[in-house]
What we know:
- The complex is a heterodimer.
- Chain A is an alpha+beta fold.
- Helix content of chain A is 61%, strand content 8%.
- In chain A, helix 17 (406-423) packs antiparallel against helix 18 (427-452) and helix 24 crosses helix 25.
- Helix content of chain B is 39%, strand content 21%.
- Chain B is of the alpha/beta class.
- The longest helix of chain B is centred in the first third of the chain and has 25 residues, at 2-26.
- Classes of the chains: A alpha+beta, B alpha/beta.
- The interface between A and B is large, with 64 and 60 residues.
Amino acid sequence: MARIIRALVLVISALTMSSGAAAAQTSAINEILAENAKIIAKGSRKTIQPAIDALRDSGLPEAQVVLEKWRAKEIWMRKEDQRFFLTKTEDKKTYQLFEIASGVPAGEAAKKALKQIKPNSGVRALISAALVRFQLMDPNPAKRRASLTAIQRDPSAEQLFALRGAIADEPDADIKAEKQRIEHLLTLAFDPDPVARVNAIRSFEGALDVDVRAALNPLLATTTIAVSEQVPDVNIARRLTVATAPGDDGGLTGPARDLDFDAAYALLVTDGAPAAISTEVQKQALAEHVVDGKVGGIALSDLNSTDSRDRAYAALALAGKVAPAPSLTDRVAAIKAHTFYAAYTEPDSDVTDAAREVLADIETQVEIYGILDLSLDALSLASIYFLAAIGLAITFGVMRVINMAHGEFIMMGAYTGFVVQQIIPDYTISILVALPLAFAVTFGAGVALERLVIRYLYHRPLETLLATFGISIALQQIAKNIFGTQARPLTSPEWLDGAWEINPVVAISWIRVAIFVLGLAFLIFLLFVLNRTRLGLEVRAVTQNPRMAASMGIDPDRIRMLTFGLGSGIAGIAGVAIGLFAKVTSGLGQDYIVQSFMTVVVGGVGNLWGVLAGASLIGSLQKVIEAFNPSNTLAAQTYMIVFIIIFIQFRPKGIFALKGRAAGD
Amino acid sequence: MRLDKFIMASATTLALTASTALAADETIKVGVLHSLSGTMAISETTLKDTMLLLIEQQNAKGGVLGKQLEAVVVDPASDWPLFAEKARELLTVHEVDVIFGNWTSVSRKSVLPVIEELNGLLFYPVQYEGEESSKNVFYTGAAPNQQAIPATDYYLEELGVEKFALLGTDYVYPRTTNKILEQYLKDKGISADDIFVNYTPFGHSDWSKIVADVTALGADGKKVGVISTINGDANIGFYKELAAAGVSADDIPVVAFSVGEEELSGLDTANLVGHLAAWNYFQSADAEANTAFIDAWKAKMGSERVTNDPMEAHYIGFNMWVNAVEAAGTTDVDAVRTAMYGQEFPNLTGGTAVMLPNHHLAKPVLIGEIQEDGQFDIISQTEEVAGDAWTDFLPESAVLVSDWKDLGCGMYNTTTKTCVQIKSNY
């Protein structure tokens, strides 16, 4: 019955073909698809290979296109006859069908009657690997590059030979170099000639790329073998030390044991030694055969050592009551009779030697560069903390106002960036607009806060703290009401996408570099304003002695207002920067307020260099602790806070303590 | 004068109480216990709106048992102890017949004693860590074996991942889930050296080192995959750093258990295409019931709003409860509970959900790839998987089963053949 239907389907499909030649080809590819319809529809990486191979090896000119369309999820299956089509739709309900190879219209179908073939990422990788042979010399350079990526994801000996044929004629120098590099990567794994492999390995001396290490490491995979007499002809990595008794770990002075007792004996069992039984099983077996207070002729009271229990068990085994099992003495003897080695799975010792040397060299370099990378991360984190804290350094450090709403100014700046992006779709322009606008908005907010609240509380620090804390909560709730609590996107312009890769180990995202530059720019700007301008002079005068300053013709009210506005405005700009690399939520400020106060206090109140020192100390400390304990970032933060508490005990005025009358005490 | 006022006030109160009592006879009250303020508000407000929509639709169909449904909405304000207080208020003051609510596991744990003491009925709609089965709670979200385990299988079998990075936020759900997954992976032959675990605080934003650590895992030639139980807005910084580091989903895929349509709306997804999420429902599921539900939701809430997995859980839970009440002919908790077992209701992804005697649902597991438009392309959909209250992959839980129908016990030890406990005090 099924056969008749299938024949019928074939006839019908043959009838619908337009021209003779096209029909022949189309039906050829359709037949391949039809034969594999089941596994294609199932789409599992484990079973799909025959379908891909059949298409690839069909020799049909349209095989490449079909594979590409399949990978792009553009192929649909008509459920009733399991035939495959390309589709187009207007309303997502009825779909026009097109022949896969020729693109000839083939009627319509309702969505229900169709199934879209969606290969998962595992299947897509296999399809890409199959496409390699079509694409290695494709006129389109992007496709050639894609084929190289595909080779790397699914390397095989076959790809090596395809790739070798495609290097000489490669017109693009970059792609050619990449092809040669990948050819070397495949050579060291798959070439039958050991000399070629060793040369390929040597060509990677000092290469830091992850894929090089990923290719070299498997060459050095070892298995453990136990040898009783002569060493067999294998590629020995080294001799292993073995525990010769349960719990033997070499003691305090001896060498550490590579293999513990049970693991070593288990290895002998796989080589044919009799299987051991656990102490519990042995005890249970003994307990089941207690006769007149004796087991196997040994009194129960004597069964207090492994040795006596082994003897009792052996007696039972001899009597045929339990299955025989080796005693501890047997096992110790068996282990002592063997030598244990780690042997390379790769048989050629030249290859493993070369791989070991090159890899050892690479790993030393990776470690050195790893430290460099960590320092770069630390520098970046420090610059983020610096940017978040520098506004506070002015309001808290210079003016001595404890402004708990400082974090909310950061948040306000970030939301300003978000709103600007809603209005100006070009990301570059919107960031350029957002930075001054965020400054303006938070400058205004800062001035308003100073005029309305803080100026009444200058001599009452505790009340300032409470009032600004309340304002901080209110601002958060307002943000929630306006923007919702879901995080909002603040997207960086394209030229800040990606990372600056100094080498494959040391890399830092451009956005972090930009934040670093921004932080540096503000440091210079503020140093200039405070030390070289009239405003800076007045600010310093007002902070040191407002009455004296007033009698010199300075308006302390105006100066305080401007200073507070300046500090808040910088927080707004920090907000845009932080929003770009993290997230924009109403709680954004909360994440930075504690860190900011910590930075200012550790660095030393009232000194911009102090903020820089504080941020650097906290940032690098955090990264160093993280590096020691990579599995728990939260713990790293806790240790850091403990350290800072201790630090403050010894230097209560921070790294850069103000001296003399300016210190105010 | 004062006395007068007092008497008048008492009289009004009495009259009011009487009138609510009268009203109670005419309507069936449905409690909605979701935070409408505080950190969980955005997720839970959506669920409150979902419940109001479902109740509205049911009332339009004529209500339940010939009576109209009345929603009683309270706000526990993302404050875990307040959840218990508000649950008590719902059951004793408003005398609701059923409660739909909670999101975080900690809030559920705080409500449990109240619900069990007063014999209430709670429908909990969020995917969670399992290891619990209360007589008075129906868990309509996914247990670990309906989300984490199938996703891990997908990694092992379909993507050929050999090395795992388990990244999570530091609280009960990720820690329990990762504990189960670690054991599961070891059972599958993955060595402990090939499992990298990291916990970060809520709202973490400095991801550069962690992402670098994860990419460096590939140095020994094994394929690396990330399983993320990172919760909340920390995901945004994580995905941004991932995109900046140029980590392609084809090289190092990330599967997330707490990132859905709602969370993706806060992200530019262009660089995340191909990364994965595992749920029991995606908005992109192709089924008629789903289209109708999405249309109703958008008509009520606005066209830019998305639907997500916990909403489907409420949809199934609510409709099963309605059917169970109709079957029992009463809203009495014990009668409804008995009628719940074996309830079937079409889910929104084209299959049928069944309520099991362990108070969990049988639901299909879906794995979706993130698309540019912030929706998920479903690339794998299993048959219905029965939810398992006690995981089979931790030795201390493997011996436990939950069966409220025949055994009458939520924590039954199959080796000692005894009920460990009836009430929950985990």
